[in-house]
Amino acid sequence: MIFNSFDFLFFFASFFILYWFVFVNNLKLQNLLILAGSYFFYAWWDWRFLSLLIASSALNYFLGIYIGKTQNEKHQRYLVLIGIVAGVGTLLFFKYFNFFIDTTTSIFSIFGVQLKLATLQLILPLGISFYTFRSISYLLDVESEKIEPTKDWIVFFSYISFFPSLLSGPIDRAEMLVPQLQKNRTFNYNLASEGMAQILWGLFKKLVIADNCAFVTQAIFENYTQFSASTLLLGSFFYIIQVYADFSGYSDMAIGFAKLLGFRITQNFNYPFFAQNIAEHWQRWHISLTSWMTEYVYTPLSFNFRSLRNKGIIISIIINFILVGLWHGANWTFVVFGLLNGCYFIPLILSGALNKKRTIAKDKLLPSIREIMNMGFTFSIVMLTAIIFGSKNMVEAFGYYSQMCSLSLFTIPPELKSQIILLMLIMLMFSFEWMSRDEQFGLIYFRKKLGRVGRWCLYVGLIFTIGMYMQTNETAFLYFKF
Amino acid sequence: MERTEIAEKIKGILIKILKHENFEIKDELSATDVEGWDSLTHMLIITDIEELFGVKFKLKELNKLNNLGNLIDLIISKLA
């Protein structure tokens, strides 16, 4: 049941009526409905893995309470470790078991030893990377006394399985979502209307931009040997736009649905393509994951390596980014993708450029030439590195790059002509996002500036554009596989 | 050491690392109020503070800090 499906529309409409009209004055029943709805939503995909979600929630619920109860720091550490080992262990089993077996077999074969280790046909439980990270941050935050353990089991279980962000994030922290679950909620028209607009913007990005880009990139990535270098460059451009529009579009919808239920959840993207350097790009891309990794991986690492100063920061960033890459899946492409992104920080750290931050085009309509050049340079690095992210394996990634290194790079790709409309739609998306760059999503600027008639013309125009240019087949979100 | 003296020394470190003075030193000042004081520069600032005052922090102590006032209190407690 994906957001852009009739199944979900029917589910959410029924849920919305029960939530705001039947259980409106009863917080406990509203939360119970969130929990039941979330489990129904999850079971719709595969009911067998629901037990894993419930077991994980139950374990972390009790661990949280015991960590809060004991004053002994060592005991607290052991309890947190139990939670981390259980969570990461499950994740490793489902996500990385075959990768580990294949890698071990390959290493031994280098030394002439042929191992016959069996791999397993495992299905990755949907959303496991997201709810595991939610649970781990909860335990660590309780241990560091940043938050109190949640004693109300309905609230805690609802936090872990909150359906708008269950399958693909944002990875909300307990300090953000739990207090909202504990507070009485009344219908807020402005918040709900903002949520509707955000869902519409997310649908536009997913159905119009991402799916149309996917149509082009799939053909290019699968048959890269048959295309000219300039077409491959065009393919890499469409691919990074696809990933952005798909995932940020999903996040906009998740945040929008949460707003319709009276919740404000974590912003996951902050216009990453307007970033002035790679560090800023990562502060704006998949924010809930990068901030999670910064707090629970990078900070402890950089603290331990702090006596090494800049070298310590570089080591910590590289380890951090390899793990960010690996989080996406069990493939060497993700490891190399993470490693490269970590290495891109080195010149920034050594030159001290990290320490100088400026707000882009502050109080101006357009960016300066220098800002445009910085954006273009950062975008190019991100786009070219994403080829590895999008390739099935490193051999294909190298093949793609080597095919790009030819004089045909300086020709006009024949496919360009047929993609003019898509390029214009991408320009439209970025224009809207540029105008709203100080706000949470791409429609806010015009929502504030336009009167009621203007706003409705904008919404109808967007719906019309979606109807005209959407792909007819229902496609899943890219980040579901992570 | 007086609070104001500690605050002035921290100000010097911030200027050295962040290369600007666009902030006002006060107890309520938090990292989010200061351009460039983020997770990447934070440890450089902390290391300089440790060296200048001859103290050692624990990560748990740093995680509990909300603003400059908390940091000064922590340094005072370490120096006592």
Question: Can you offer a commentary on this structure?
Answer:
The complex is a heterodimer of chains A (482) and B (80). Chain A has 482 residues and is mainly α. Helix content of chain A is 68%, strand content 0%. Chain A is built from 19 helices and no strands. The longest helix of chain A is centred in the first third of the chain and has 38 residues, at 73-110. Chain A is globular, with a radius of gyration of 23 Å. Chain B is mainly α. Chain B is built from four helices and no strands. Chain B has helices at residues 3-18, 39-53, 59-63, 68-79. In chain B, helix 1 packs across helix 2 (39-53). The termini of chain B are close together. In chain B, 20% of the residues are buried. The model of chain B has no long low-confidence stretch (mean pLDDT 92). Chain A binds chain B through residues 144-146, 279, 283, 294-295, 298-300, 302-303, 306-307, 309-310, 312-313, 317, 349, 352, 354-358, and chain B through 17-20, 35-36, 38-44, 46-47, 50, 59-60, 62-64.
Oligomer: heterodimer
Mean pLDDT of chain B: 92
SS strand fraction of chain B: under 5%
Secondary structure: number of strands of chain B: 0
- How big is the Rg of chain B? 11 Å
Helix share, percent of chain B = 55-70%
Largest sheet of chain A: none
Q: Find the structural class of chain A using helix and strand composition.
A: mainly alpha
Mean pLDDT of chain A, to the nearest integer, reads 93
Q: If interface size is counted as residues with C-beta under 8 Å from the partner's C-beta, which chains form the largest one?
A: A-B, 26 and 21 residues
Ends distance of chain B? 9 Å
| Poorly predicted runs of chain A | none
Which shape of chain B, going by the Cα principal axes? globular
Low-confidence stretches of chain B: none
Cα gyration radius of chain A (Å) = 23 Å
The H-and-E topology of chain B, N to C, reads as: HHHH
Strand content of chain A: under 5%
Structural class of chain B: mainly alpha
Q: How many H/I helical runs of chain A?
A: 19
Largest sheet of chain B: none
